[in-house]
Write a structure and sequence with these properties.
3-stranded antiparallel sheet; alpha+beta; elongated
């Protein structure tokens, strides 16, 4: 749970920095979030690849289901948990 909180906070920080870079113009919050999410996830994937670690990203979906995406090397494995 602590990892998810840290990841969320990191994405929020990057999204907010994007908002500030645009001189705090409103209306781009989702765009900022998605770009920040991509930046942070790519950073963590690069780090995992460099260190040979496997990363797990839990994503909450509608109706209480969650998917866990495991990435190792070049392939993805998606499983419902």
């Amino acid at each position: 749970m602590k990892k998810k909180k840290g990841l969320h906070d990191e994405i929020a920080t990057v999204a907010y920095e994007s908002y500030e870079t645009r001189d705090r113009v409103h209306g781009h919050d989702l765009d900022d979030w998605f770009v920040a999410e991509k930046i942070v996830m790519e950073k963590h994937e690069r780090h995992a690849k460099e260190t040979g670690q496997e990363i797990e990203i839990g994503k909450k979906e509608e109706k209480g289901f969650s998917k866990t995406v495991n990435k190792r090397g070049h392939g993805y494995r998606v499983s419902n948990v």
